[in-house]
User: Fold this.
Amino acid sequence: MTMRSGEKLAVHGGNPVRKEPMPPRHLFGEEEKQAALALFDKSIETGEAFGYNGPEEEAYCNRFAAFLGGGYADAVNSGTSAIYVALRALEIEPFTEVIVPSVSDMGGVMPVPLMNCVPVPADCAPGTYNMGPEQVEQAISERTSAIVVAHIAGIPVDMEPIMQLARARGIKVVEDCAQAHGARYQGEYVGTFGDVAAFSTMSGKHHATAAQGGVVYTRSQSLYWKSRQCSDRGKPFGLEGIESNVTCSLNLNLNDLSAAVGLVQLEKLPGMLDRIRRVARQVIERCAPLQAVSIDQGPPDTENAFWFMVCRLDPAKVTCGLDEFVGALRAEGLPFSAHYTTPFTQHAWFKNRAVFGSSGYPWMCPLYTGDPNRRYELPNWKANNDSLFLIKIHEGMAAREAEDIANALAKVEAAFLK
Assistant:
């Protein structure tokens, strides 16, 4: 690492570490374009419109399941829909409680009240955006019917003790792997530990089915058929001799055009992950001497997918707060951010119970036996919010970007170190 001790910070008029923008991802290329054109050519030649549940979508789902080591995959139109379908497939009862991450995209939480279940946040574990086993256990009650575990930033959650807690109590587990394609825990891919998993395949994720998409994954054939039913208006998939729709649900299907793009993207995914991890390793190695900054790599025996890098600042070792520290990093030309997101408990829809008109349901329904006005203290999130910051890395970056990220961290730490 080129040490930056004593250099004048860019925020104070010095020369920035990096003057040009970070390189773009170039996520889609000629291969995806040709896959889409081939589908159009086939449609033009035959006169038949392409739709959904066709050969492209079937092939994509089969290949997605094979990537995870076998099982079953159902492609849907978003990661939010994948969470909704996964929970519906579990057939949890309304007005029960579902433990959810305190830090997550709102799409990973909102399906819970839309099912007339009450979302209960599990606090972050100390020093990470992920929930931990202790925080999950503290959130469990006699009303808990399911746990949604999100692997935030591609960092695997410590799944084994959470699964032990859930199995001992007969609680179902959904893994939210929207940000964690290809991450591993104890040698196995995340998404293979819970009863069912949900992935997002929108264009910001590790691989994409064009602009939007998602996948419901399970190793249970019965849950797979229930997922298919719940993602397509209750059609009787997996049931012989039944012609009527068997449950009430929505049309949440993906489509063959998106699946054709997804097939190409799945082929590219291992290489994408290799390039992302190479950049991350270079940053981590170069930042090892730092005293106030460290990188969250997850629990032992895990392999991070690095949807973004989570950095920790030790406030006791610097003379500034997190915002000033990150502001100085940004002035060096690096796109660092502080305060990833706020817990859903702080959002208006949760505070105002704005789900089903003015009813206040599911919280205010007499069938819910918990405290509808319960307040949730999230002390670990509050501490993390003053110490964690992040930077997005992707497969379009290389050694130059890793060096600039590390140099900026070293330069700013040196300026503020006590």
